## 1
Amino acid sequence: MIISYKKLWKLLIDRDLKKKDLRQMAGISPSTIAKLGRNENINTEVLVKICTSLKCDLHEIMELISEEKEV
């Protein structure tokens, strides 16, 4: 299973926010935004900051995707 943050980017678009806005609202670093963009693992503390600043739940910003290989 891999983590996808596509839901987060869609939520930002729907709310007319930029990554810079999220960074300022949640108090997270540019390197954390870069990690999110690469679907890398993020500390749960950071996820809580994002959810708190966007007033949303974890399932609204991320999802687990199966790594099944196509035959």
## 2
Amino acid sequence: MSQPHQGACLCGTIRFKAHGELRGVIYCHCTQCRKQSGHYYAATNVADDRIEVEGGEHLTWYAASDLARRGFCSRCGSVMFWKPNDMPYVSIMAGAFEESSSLTGLCHIFVAEKGAYYDIDDELPQFEGSSQTTRLPVS
């Protein structure tokens, strides 16, 4: 069995281990992600039963919409997770991993809401909305 992918918040109060293969990184440019993080999100995900969290009593969840909630450290403010209400997985911020060399980019979502101050200049697919609800890439 492979070693777990480990990570933590900035202060180390919340630590996690994700087991198994991780999805490619999705870059989310929606207004909510940009407002919470100061830029866009970069996140992978793992099934709910494949993640262990230590220090969960310091994990605060904020329901920014009816679709999902966002988990962050109540001590240092680090954005850690994004959890859809009706799906059996949790997204983990790519920057929270101790070693991220196994992560690769998958696509950009919500590019219609992208900030005007930056360009997307890689060759990854781009979607106007969510890649699950808007299947057509931006031309």
